Amino acid sequence: MGGVLSYAVRGLTRRHGVGEHSVLANDGIDLDVRQGEVFGVLGPNGAGKTTLVRQLMGLLRPDAGTITMFGRDVRAEPDLPSRLAGYLGQADLALAELPVATAVGTTARMRGLSRADARSARDAILTELGLTEVAHRPLSSLSGGQRRLACVATALVGDRPVLILDEPTTGLDPVARRAVWGALQHRRDTAGTTIVLITHNVLEAESVLDRVAVLEAGRVIACDTPGQLKASVSGDVRLDLAWRHDPPTDDPTIAMLAGLATIRGRRWTVRMAPVAAREALGRLTTGAAFAALDDFSLATPSLEDVYLTLGGASRDLERT
Ligand SMILES: Nc1ncnc2c1ncn2[C@@H]1O[C@H](COP(=O)(O)OP(=O)(O)OP(=O)(O)O)[C@@H](O)[C@H]1O
């Protein structure tokens, strides 16, 4: 990885709209993205993630601040990101009428590959992402997940040194999601590709992210490795309980947990010290309450817990 920075972002500020309804979507963001790392951008809806990555791609001009890419000022060379980075936006309608193979192959040609190289790069990525069977169908005729996967293929083809992906696995089934995470990891490991990733899928992302920036209301409220972030916010563990039917709240352990739990229907989540959690779980699994318990798990802090501890809202963080 060395000290090479794929991106250095300083004081990045961008407001959408004007007047009283305008929104300060990015508010003085400072970030470094190192070459060859998988850099995650995490945060609730409306935190400013898409606004940030669209500026990294040169698709949106900052109001203030600077972005340098491999040491070069993006304002002075606005086409630099589109030459060096593959981008997957939230919606990709431009290629909708093309067959998948044509969309991917044409993109490879546009990225400078010879006809023969474009063909083999196209075939390789279609195989890698499990798209061979739908290769000759127009994107518009595919299911939402297949279409998303085909768009991932167009972002990845041509081996750009940087990939910027806005929620690449949204709508994908588990097999397709695994193929995408595998493809990203493979490029990072073998080609030193820098990957900037917006994701709501916290648990999946944890396994691939080298560092993560947590955005809230346009600001970076934390930026570190998942491990360091987790270590810095809490020594607590998370006890998840799923009840078969109404739990017997006259049981003292259950009454104690009820007072601490975040309750969603029959699912309880309790954050507590490891010793207390183990004791509570011991009492639950040997006592009368066990009959009412459908499932339980004890987990060390996740990125989701980091995010919650930092004050974010949990509503849109997917856990699968
Ligand atoms: N074109 C626009 N005009 C006006 N406001 C906008 C525009 N684009 C984004 N915003 C606002 O800017 C803020 C940041 O939006 P952005 O899309 O960057 O958030 P996000 O973190 O990517 O959200 P999500 O997770 O929902 O995709 C939001 O309040 C949004 O409503």
From TrEMBL:
A single GO molecular function term of this UniProt record: ATP binding
PROSITE patterns associated with the record: ABC_TRANSPORTER_1, ABC_TRANSPORTER_2
Keyword ATP-binding part of the UniProt annotation: yes
Main subcellular localisation: membrane
The ABC transporter domain, residue ranges: 7-242
Pfam short name (any one): ABC_tran
Entry keywords, A to Z: Antibiotic resistance, ATP-binding, Nucleotide-binding, Transport
Localisation per UniProt entry: Cell membrane
PANTHER family: ABC TRANSPORTER ATP-BINDING PROTEIN (PTHR42711), DOXORUBICIN RESISTANCE ATP-BINDING PROTEIN DRRA (PTHR42711:SF19)
Name by which UniProt lists this protein: ABC transporter ATP-binding protein
